[in-house]
Each structure stands twice: as C-alpha cells, then as structure tokens.
Amino acid sequence: MADLSFSESNSAQRVAERVERDAGGSLNAFIVPFIQHLHTLIRETRPTHADWRRTMEFLTEVGHASDGRRQEWVLLSDLLGVTALIEEINTNRPKGATPNTVRGPFYRADAPRLPLDANISLDGIGVPLWVSGRVLDLDGQPIAGATIETWQANAEGFYENQQPDQQPEFNLRGVFTTDATGTFRYRTVRPAGYTVPCDGPVGQLLGGLGFSLGRPAHLHFMIKADGFETISTHVYDSSDRDLARDALFGVKQELVGEFKPREKGDGWSLDFTFVMVRAKKGRRQS
Ligand code: BEZ
Ligand code: FE
Predict the structure, then answer these.
(1) Separation of 284 CA from ligand 2 center, angstroms?
(2) Ligand 1 atom index nearest CA of 153
C-alpha cells in the first residue's frame, strides 16, 4: 500500500518524492531545495489561513502589475536583496577588479555611439559634469577599443524612457570607445538620486513596512572588451547621504566616485578607473 500520510514532519519529503517520481530529471536542482525550504518556512512561521490568503493575493497583484513595460517580480527580487545576491554568486571577481551590480530596468541597447568628449545631455538641463576615466586590465595595462555604454537619471531623478514626452530620446545615454591609452571622456549633468517605482504592490507593501525605496545618485556603465568579462555596474556619488541605504544593496566601496568642483568653476568632474578581468575560456559573455 502506498504511503498516503502527509504531516508537518513529512510534507517536504512527500513533495520531493513526487517530484522525483513524476517529474524525474526534468526539474533542475533548484526546485527540490526550493520546495523543502518553503515547507520549512511555513512550519516555522505557522501562517493562518488568512495570512496565507493575503500572501496569495499579494503575489497575484505582483503578477497583474507585471508586463512587457513593468516588472514587479524583478523589483521584488531587487528589494529583497536577491538580485544582488545572485550577482555576488555569479561574478566572483578577484580583488582590484571592478564588481558588477544590478543592471536595472532603464537600460536601452540601442543608445547612439558617440565620439569622445560628446555631451550626452541633450536638453542641457542640470549642473554640468565632465566624466573621464580609463579601462585597465588587472595588471594596470590600458584596454584600447573597449566599449563604454552609459545611462543615467537626469537632475530630477528620471530616466529618458520614464519620461518620453518630457526628455529628448536618448537623453543622458551614449556609447563610447576607449582610445589607445584606454581613456574615455564625455560630458553630462550630475544625476539625482531617485525612488524605485513605488506605486505598485511591491513598493506599497515593502515601503509600508519601512523598507528603503531610495537609490543614491549614480551613473550606470556597461563595459565590453574582447577577451574580458563584461562589467555591468554603477558609479555612485560619494556626497550622497543615502549611500548606505540603497534600496537594491548595490553600493560597494569600490564603486563610489568623487565628484570634484572644476577649477574653472563651471561644473563638476568625475574621474573613474574600471578594471576588467580576462574572460574564462568557453564562458559566454552576456
Ligand atoms: C536602476 O538603477 O536604474 C534601477 C535598478 C533596479 C530597479 C530600479 C532602478
Ligand atoms: Fe539607476
């Protein structure tokens, strides 16, 4: 006679057996531990029927609020620190290399290629910022021909694709290539910090519970060079008082840059060095 028992003490085991028997190897190694941890969580926190119903309602709302333009599931993962943890697990770079952080939803793959020294502020609104930097390998050798994609919020904390009617298309975005000395330079405006989208179920729930929803001011960078691991990261403004309260747990000491006043008094400058790691053979770059 098959075992029909299902109790607090054997629930995870029963489900694992079913997965093993009925689904065989078609489920990856993540699913069975996920089910077991879920059962442990339920046993330990002992939700009532009403608690569980509210949880299901919340998850339903998260699904309804997600579509091709908006991703509440990703936001949930971001605010719970899960996206940052997955980044840590998957890019374990040696000391001295520039770490990755979450890419976020505002990246566009079709930003224009621009010559060095171009100004990416197409509306000229904000405090001028001159960005310069170098791309090096771990031995300090310059990487010529590296591609630097940058994107950032404006002086009010909004990305161009959040405000298609107010900002010019591709405002504060550009793609540059390092010269023979591994150097890049461009002009922009100082970005403001902003709040992650908080009008959906995730922001409402976690914001209501007191989670920080703010992001300190930052510039985004994606750096690619043949034979090197792609860097997808941020550079944070050291003067932002909320560095330690980043909603996404993305701030690392190595990613904090100092915005310095220019001698001419006409704005600010930021100089930042990115250090790339050689790609492991056979590993595909995303
Ligand atoms: C961002 O930095 O652009 C971002 C990342 C994740 C969620 C929201 C915004
Ligand atoms: Fe951002």
Answers:
(1) 25
(2) 3
List, for residues 184-223, the tens digit of each pLDDT value: 999 999 999 999 988 999 999 999 999 999 999 999 999 9
Q: Any idea which residue has 């719970």 for tokens?
A: 80
pLDDT of residue 19: 81
Q: Which two tokens stand for residue 227?
A: 């034979």
- Return the DSSP state at 166: T
Question: Which residue's CA is the nearest one to ligand 1's atom 2?
Answer: 104
The rounded distance, in Å, linking the Cα atoms of 145 and 148 is: 9
Six-digit token pair at 134?
């170098």
Residue 28: is its pLDDT beyond 70? Answer: no
**The model's pTM:** 0.88
Q: How far is CA 198 from CA 114, 119, 241, in A?
A: 34, 31, 21
Q: Ligand 1 atom 1: the closest Cα is on which residue?
A: 104
Distance in Å, CA 114 to ligand 1 centroid: 24
CA distances from 189 to 58, 181, 226, 231 (A): 39, 25, 30, 23
Angle, helices 49-64 vs 201-208, to 10°: value is 130
Q: What's the one-letter identity of residue 254? A: E
Is pLDDT at 284 greater than 60 in this prediction?
Answer: no
CB under 6 Å to ligand 1: residues? 78, 102, 104-106, 196, 215, 248
Counting beta carbons within 10 angstroms of the beta carbon of residue 135, is it exposed (0 to 12), middle (13 to 18) or buried (19 or more)? buried
Instruction: In whole angstroms, give the CA distance from residue 189 to residue 152.
Output: 9
Comparing CA positions, the residue from 220, 193, 221, 198 lying closest to residue 211 is: 198
